[in-house]
Automatic annotation (TrEMBL):
This is Magnesium transporter. It comes from Wenyingzhuangia heitensis. Its main location: membrane. It is a multi-pass membrane protein. The chain crosses the membrane at residues 269-288, 300-320. InterPro entries: CorA_cytoplasmic_dom, CorA_TM1_TM2, MgTranspt_CorA/ZnTranspt_ZntB. Belongs to the CorA metal ion transporter (MIT) (TC 1.A.35) family. It is found in: Cell membrane. CDD domains: TmCorA-like_1 (cd12828). Gene3D superfamilies: CorA soluble domain-like (3.30.460.20), Magnesium transport protein CorA, transmembrane region (1.20.58.340). It comes from the Bacteria.
């Protein structure tokens, strides 16, 4: 079990002058000596390493309450300020999965080290590790609040890129011509709408966390970083809201067009019915089996009746056109 933990954990130690990312061979190698003011980034895949978590929390003199927080993988979005440490719990969308599953992430933040715990192996933070390794940008001159900023920014960027790809492939958002509201169409609409709502829910969760980080009272957090993140996530939510409104508008338009077509068909059928009702009435009268129907003995009775029927038809059509029914 310990080997599993070591294989699932990495430790990066860096500052302006130094960089170290040696493999962890023993859990005792995990220590945070902040005397040289360097930064430590400990990352662990898996939330089930309870024994190892307890040992690390104990050896680094962290609040024991953190162990209880980490052990619960059903946390709602949460930002807690403990003694000299900030605990963050967030549900993150797994954009690489077909059904957009979620995973729990924990962040334990102090001035000189950040411990990130991810429920599942694999992430999209490699570009951050590269910037630290290659000393690109300002990351190695900043503290852990900037590192957490980069991680949250990476999550937002991943949401944006994935959502852009998905919205571009949505048939209802991009095309409404020759669309018929079949059961398959309705199912596809529901699927696309659920996808948009899933991203909106994930973006709202992220905004909630960022807003809470902006309101933290501890001096270790530079709030201007998170104000920028708030702008980014708000832009994403605005885009999602716009697409959701556009989707609903196009759905309503499609069904309105189909309803109009159906009304036109019903109107045409009604007009034909109105025309043929009096003709059927006349045919029904002279089709009765009574002997004493005077017109039956008229020499030109048949042609007279056809003439009357023609006149009734023409008058009906004239009246319909006058009323602009067709």
């Amino acid at each position: 079990m310990r080997n599993t933990f070591l294989n699932s954990t990495s430790l990066i130690n860096y500052s302006k002058e130094i960089y170290n990312c040696d493999p962890i061979t023993n859990i005792d190698d995990i220590h945070f000596n902040s005397k040289d003011k360097s930064i430590f980034w400990l990352n662990t895949y898996g939330t089930y390493h309870t024994k190892e978590f307890k040992q690390i929390i104990s050896s680094t003199a962290l609040d024991d309450f953190l162990l209880k927080l980490i052990s619960n993988d059903k946390h709602p979005n949460k930002v807690l300020e403990l003694d000299n440490v900030i605990f963050v719990a967030i549900k993150v969308l797994k954009t690489e999965t077909e059904n957009f599953d979620t995973e729990q992430m924990f962040f334990i933040l102090t001035p000189h080290y950040l411990w990130s715990i991810q429920e599942q192996k694999g992430d999209y933070f490699e570009w951050i590790r590269e910037r630290i390794r290659e000393n690109k940008g300002i990351v190695r001159s900043k503290k852990t609040d900037y590192l957490l900023f980069l991680i949250l920014e990476s999550i937002i960027d991943n949401y944006e890129d994935t959502y852009d790809d998905i919205s571009d492939s949505m048939t209802i958002l991009n095309e409404t011509s020759d669309v018929k509201p079949t059961p398959e169409f309705t199912q596809n609409v529901e699927k696309e709408k659920n996808t948009i709502i899933t991203f909106k829910r994930a973006a709202n969760s992220l905004r909630d966390i960022i807003t809470k980080l902006e309101k933290t009272e501890q001096q270790k957090v530079n709030k201007k970083f998170y104000s920028e993140l708030n702008t980014q996530v708000n832009n994403l939510i605005n885009t999602i809201d716009f697409d959701l409104q556009e989707l609903e508008s196009k759905i309503n338009m499609i069904f309105s067009i189909q309803g109009h077509r159906l009304n036109e068909v019903m109107k045409t059928l009604t007009i034909f019915s109105v025309i043929f009702i009096p003709l059927t009435f006349l045919a029904g009268i002279y089709g009765m089996n009574f002997k004493n129907i005077p017109e039956l003995d008229t020499e030109y009775g048949y042609f007279i009746l056809l003439g009357v029927m023609l006149i009734v038809t023409l008058v009906s059509i004239y009246l319909f056109k006058k009323k602009k029914w067709f």
